[in-house]
Specification:
alpha+beta; 2 domains; three-stranded antiparallel sheet; two-stranded antiparallel ribbon; about 15% strand
Amino acid sequence: MSVNYILSQYIDEAMSQAVYDKLEDGTFVGRIPSCKGVIAFASTLRQCENELHSTLEDWILVGLKLGHAMPVINNINLNEEPIRELGGHPVSVEILLKNCGDWDLMDLFREPDTSLWSSMTIA
């Protein structure tokens, strides 16, 4: 059984829209037009793609944390309020982002059934 995660799908779809250009000095620039400010520079195309992917992940997490409207990409809307269960109680992503401490935020979305979820306390 395969499991699909909305953030992974969103990132994959956004990366499929990436535009790359080779600059005069031989380096590369990559951007995602629908994601304002997501841009990366690198000496090779592969490095540029990796940098752009990392920049996109950071851009999404900061945007979600600050409550920015995220672009809808291929019918994936991160602006809708998803609800997760934590100890049998519904918890919004906003509450998770405020209370996750030092945990890797992406792990919260990739591994919803780990001990990370059961050990989290909501203030």
